[in-house]
Specification:
Layout (H helix, E strand, L loop, with lengths): L3 H8 L7 E6 L5 H9 L6 E4 L10 H17 L4 E7 L4 E8 L5 E4 L14 E6 L2 H16 L3 H15 L1 H4 L2 E4 L6
Parallel strand pairs: 1-5, 1-6, 2-5, 6-7
Antiparallel strand pairs: 3-4
Length: 180
């Protein structure tokens, strides 16, 4: 079996920085892949949608914010920004700059939308069965996430039905090949 990280790396341009999106449902392995990729490119930036979503009902808004404030400026050769969501206070927190010409790896359910797709150099979807995903996500985030699992999963399914991210992906990876 080919290493998914090697497949991703082989599909990327080598002559310039790139914008890579890693999408999939909660618990599929997006963060594991994204964190592993960051180590491959010096000066790369990791943007996790979990840090941006504006609350437990914010998947669509978080997706739009990342596209507008990070992906569009970077694709145009300018620096971008992302605003961290303060989950404890339930308000927007500090802004974080993304330098122009950065390798950007952005991960989270909702990053791969039809409007974002033209801004991406590579789009990856990670697929994994529901039972394994839920077990992974709750093991990782436990008490914080457990009361919101069904609520969040419904937003993911609505986004997937509307945007069709699997069909927009350059590469679909089996989450079992990734680990937790």
């Amino acid at each position: 079996m080919t290493d998914p990280l090697d497949l991703i790396t082989a599909l990327l341009p080598t002559d310039r920085p790139a914008i890579v999106a890693i999408d999939g449902r909660s618990g599929s392995g997006k963060t594991t892949v994204a964190e592993s990729l960051v180590g491959r490119w010096e000066g790369s930036v990791l943007l996790r949608l979990d840090d941006v979503y504006p609350g437990w009902d914010g998947l669509r808004r978080g997706s739009d914010l990342v596209r507008r404030n990070a992906l569009e400026p970077l694709k145009a050769g300018r620096g971008g920004v992302w605003t961290q969501w303060d989950w404890a206070a339930d308000v927007a927190g500090p802004e974080h700059p993304i330098p122009a010409a950065s390798w950007l790896i952005v991960e989270g359910c909702g990053v791969l939308s039809r409007r974002a797709r033209p801004l991406l150099d590579l789009a990856v979807w990670i697929e994994l069965d529901a039972q394994t995903r839920e077990a992974r996500a709750l093991a990782r985030d436990g008490d914080l996430y457990a009361p919101h699992w069904d609520r969040w999963a419904a937003q993911e399914e609505a986004f997937i039905a509307e945007e069709g991210p699997v069909g927009l992906a350059d590469l679909v990876i089996d989450g079992h090949a990734i680990g937790g």
